[in-house]
Amino acid sequence: MIKxxxxxxxxxxxxxxxGFAEKAYGKGKGEEKKALVVRLILDVLPFPxxxxxxxxxxxxxxxxxxxxYAVGKLDSKGIAAT
Length: 82
Hints:
Largest sheet: none
Number of strands: 0
Number of domains: 1
Helix content: over 70%
Radius of gyration: 12 Å
Structural class: mainly alpha
Order of helices and strands: HHHH
Distance between the termini: 33 Å
Strand content: under 5%
Low-confidence stretches: none
């Protein structure tokens, strides 16, 4: 049920977060950018800090898929530089 709640929100946040990470880090640094994007997504979700790791584990597939989709969209526009 929780996953269903965030199926629309996480992709939107991921798109914005990926764009931000691209501007912040530029070309390369894929691992650092992904860590920043995950942190930004988790910061937006309405969970207390002490359950963020648990929620990330639960929502990992959705978060990772959303990040990959957002990166792909930016790549197709010539914006992303992974």
